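[recover] target loaded
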C-alpha cells in the first residue's frame, strides 16, 4: 500500500522567512495531526531555514525547489544538495516545468540533480509532463517516457525506488485547467508500467506518482481516488493553509 504524499510548491512566493514560517505553522496546525498522508512544503530557498525550524518536531517534511548538482564551487547564485541537507531539508523538486521552460533545463542536467539529491539523502520529486501542443499531437507518452528515461538514467532499481515522480501536464500548471481523472490515471499507469521496465515490478508497485496541475480542494478527491495517483504536487492551492489542508483531507 503506497502512502500518499501531498507536497506544496510555494514557487517564488512567501520568501519572507516570517511569512513563510506563519504559513508552515498554519499547515502544521491544520493537517499534521495524522500520519496516514505524508505532507511536505517547499518554500523558496530564502525561507528554507525558517520553515525547517517551524516544522521541527512535526511530521511535515521540508524541501527545496531546485538544486545545483555539485557539492560546492564557483557557481554563483546556486545552492547544493549538501547545503539543503545541512539546513534540514529532506527533499527537492527537480525538473519542474517552469525550470525546464524558463531556465532551459534538459533531462541530462536534471539527471545530475537527481543523482546529487540521492547522494545526500534528499528525496527527489522528479517532475515530468507534456505541453498542450504535445498532448494535441498525441505524443504525451513519448514525451513523458523521454523525460523519465533521461531523468533516471544510470540509476539502480534501488535508487529509482527512493524517488517520487510528479506527473504535471504543463498546460494544467497554474492555469486552472486540470487533467480529467481518467486522463491523468492513464498517464500514471503508463509511468508505472515504464518504471517496471526501468527498475523492477516491485519498485514500480512501491513508487509514489503524484499528480500536479491546478489540483485544488474541489477536484482533489476525484484525482486522488485514481488507482495510480499517489498524491499531489500543489502550487497555488498550497499558499493558503486551509486549501492545502483540504487537499490533504481529500487524500485521507
Ligand atoms: C506546480 O507548481 O507544480 C503546480 C502544480 O502548480 P499549480 O497547482 O498552481 O497548478
Amino acid at each position: 500500500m503506497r502512502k500518499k504524499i501531498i507536497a506544496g510548491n510555494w514557487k517564488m512566493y512567501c520568501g519572507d522567512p516570517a511569512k513563510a514560517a506563519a504559513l508552515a505553522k498554519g499547515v502544521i496546525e491544520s493537517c499534521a495531526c495524522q500520519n496516514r498522508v505524508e505532507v511536505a512544503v517547499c518554500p523558496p530557498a530564502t525561507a528554507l531555514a525558517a520553515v525547517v525550524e517551524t516544522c521541527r518536531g512535526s511530521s511535515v517534511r521540508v524541501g527545496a525547489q531546485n538544486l545545483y548538482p555539485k557539492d560546492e564551487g564557483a557557481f554563483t547564485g546556486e545552492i547544493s544538495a549538501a547545503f539543503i541537507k545541512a539546513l534540514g531539508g529532506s527533499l527537492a523538486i527537480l525538473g519542474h516545468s517552469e525550470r525546464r521552460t524558463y531556465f532551459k533545463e534538459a533531462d541530462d542536467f536534471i539527471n545530475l540533480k537527481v543523482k546529487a539529491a540521492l547522494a545526500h539523502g534528499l528525496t527527489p520529486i522528479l517532475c515530468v509532463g507534456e505541453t498542450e501542443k504535445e498532448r494535441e499531437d498525441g505524443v504525451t507518452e513519448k514525451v513523458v517516457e523521454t523525460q523519465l528515461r533521461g531523468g533516471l538514467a544510470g540509476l539502480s532499481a534501488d535508487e529509482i525506488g527512493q524517488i517520487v515522480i510528479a506527473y504535471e501536464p504543463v498546460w494544467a500548471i497554474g492555469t486552472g485547467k486540470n487533467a480529467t481523472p481518467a486522463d491523468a490515471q492513464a498517464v500514471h499507469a503508463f509511468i508505472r508500467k515504464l518504471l517496471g521496465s526501468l527498475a523492477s515490478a516491485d519498485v514500480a508497485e512501491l513508487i509514489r506518482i503524484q499528480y500536479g496541475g491546478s489540483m485544488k480542494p474541489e477536484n482533489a478527491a476525484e484525482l486522488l481516488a485514481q488507482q495510480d495517483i499517489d498524491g499531489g504536487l500543489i502550487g497555488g492551492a498550497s499558499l493558503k493553509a486551509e486549501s492545502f489542508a483540504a487537499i490533504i483531507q481529500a487524500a485521507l
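[recover] notes: The chain has a mean pLDDT of 96.
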